[in-house]
């Protein structure tokens, strides 16, 4: 039996919400939801069956396969600067910005990239992710996303 993919999400906004719900429905294990707003993290954690929620990056550990940074573009650099550890294994860090330089993620992980939806998401409107175009850029290692 194949081991389920594990993901830690940083952010609880529109993109994080839709991806977390879709991944949870596909059997992906959501290990962490981290958000500066703990109430939002808890709400998203509840609907995505997250194992842990928190409002600090120090609530993370280095055991997830993927780390998705889904925050406003101008906060990504703060996340990188505050990331509590360096991922030295095969874990992958992705951000969801269309404008942020993914190479800046190299300081926290050797495998990194961008997963950017090419449409606007709203928490209140359902999104058909099968028909949603994404821009995907990767560095260092071939990646398969559910």
Helix content: 10-25%
What percent strand?
A: 15-25%
Work out the radius of gyration.
Answer: 14 Å
Number of helices: 3
Using the alpha-carbon principal axes, give the shape.
globular
Mean pLDDT: 86
Structural class: alpha/beta
Low-confidence stretches: none
What is the string of helix and strand elements? EHEHEEHEEE
CATH third-level topology: Rossmann fold
How would you sum up this structure, described in words?
The protein has 146 residues and is of the alpha/beta class. It has a single domain, classed as NAD(P)-binding Rossmann-like Domain (Rossmann fold, 3-Layer(aba) Sandwich), CATH 3.40.50. It contains 3 helices and 7 strands, in the order βαβαββαβββ. It has helices at 14-25, 38-48, 76-82; strands spanning 6-10, 29-34, 52-54, 66-69, 92-95, 112-117, 134-139. The chain has a 7-stranded mixed beta sheet with strand order 3-2-1-4-5-6-7. α3 (76-82) links the parallel β4 and β5 (92-95). The longest helix is centred in the N-terminal third of the chain and has 12 residues, at 14-25. The mean pLDDT is 86.
Q: What's a quick, concise take on this entry?
A:
The protein has helices spanning 14-25, 38-48, 76-82; strands spanning 6-10, 29-34, 52-54, 66-69, 92-95, 112-117, 134-139.
